[in-house]
Design a protein that fits this description.
Elements: H1 9-22, E1 29-33, H2 39-47, E2 52-55, H3 58-65, E3 76-78, H4 84-90, E4 96-100, H5 103-116, E5 123-127, H6 144-153, E6 157-162, H7 171-187, E7 192-194, H8 201-206, E8 211-214, H9 216-219
Parallel strand pairs: 1-2, 1-8, 2-3, 3-4, 4-5, 5-6, 6-7
């Protein structure tokens, strides 16, 4: 696990909130990405008023959540590449599944989570590959509407869409990708648009993000 200076988290959250404000954002949720940091980062995010935590790896999340007091738990967003065989073990941990990009995941979440949560609709976001990079997760933009219909028909609540900006952080490519996803959100009548991280949050907020996922700006660099 990476080291973290807990005394700095509160001021760093305030700095990120200010960046959001300057970029023109209002009502933008701040998801603190706690992957590779220990459970103390989750508690620090709670104390600093973040809106949720984001985790990428199933086993790491499971190990850390066991150490977390229930009174200090923020909504858990799973934002990493997801395997169907991990969903059962995460069913009572994850509040929002942000990286849904194929039919198999939709069907498995419906199977595992609706039964586990006594009929409460699992909340998901559909991940879109808006940059055309082959190494990125996400469905193609043309596939979003079909996945949305499948998710709804399987009893899932689709909050919106999620995307990751280009690997090279090129500002123009980032803006084009974020514009595409925001347009899809609007066309489909969805509520949320999860896009923007530490390096590109201003562009994302400027283009209509309602949810940013930030780690290093809050907790420091990862080794």
């Amino acid at each position: 696990m990476n080291a973290i200076d807990l005394s700095q988290v509160g001021s760093r959250v305030a700095q990120v909130r200010e960046r959001i404000k300057i970029a023109g954002g209002s009502q933008v949720k701040l998801i603190a990405v706690t992957k590779t940091f220990d459970a103390a980062a989750m508690i620090a995010a709670f104390d600093a008023g973040c809106d949720g935590i984001g985790e990428n790896y199933a086993q790491e999340l499971i190990a850390k959540i066991r150490k977390l007091p229930t009174t200090k738990r923020l909504p858990v967003n799973f934002i990493g590449r997801l395997q169907t065989n991990k969903i059962k073990s995460l069913a009572d941990i994850v509040d929002v599944w942000q990286s849904i990009d194929r039919a198999e995941l939709i069907k498995e979440i419906a199977k595992r989570c609706i039964k586990h949560n006594s009929g409460i609709k699992p909340q998901v976001m559909l991940q879109v590959n808006a940059t055309g990079e082959s190494d990125k997760g996400g469905c193609q933009p043309a596939e979003v509407e079909q996945l949305l219909s499948l998710a709804i028909s399987n009893g899932l609540e689709v909050l919106g869409l999620m995307t990751v900006g280009p690997t090279d952080n090129d500002p123009h490519r980032s803006r084009v990708a974020f514009q595409l996803v925001r347009r899809l959100v609007d066309d489909l009548g969805l509520s949320h648009c999860s896009m923007g991280m530490t390096g590109d949050l201003e562009i994302a907020v400027n283009e209509g993000s309602t949810m940013i996922r930030v780690g290093s700006a809050l907790f420091g660099p990862r080794s």
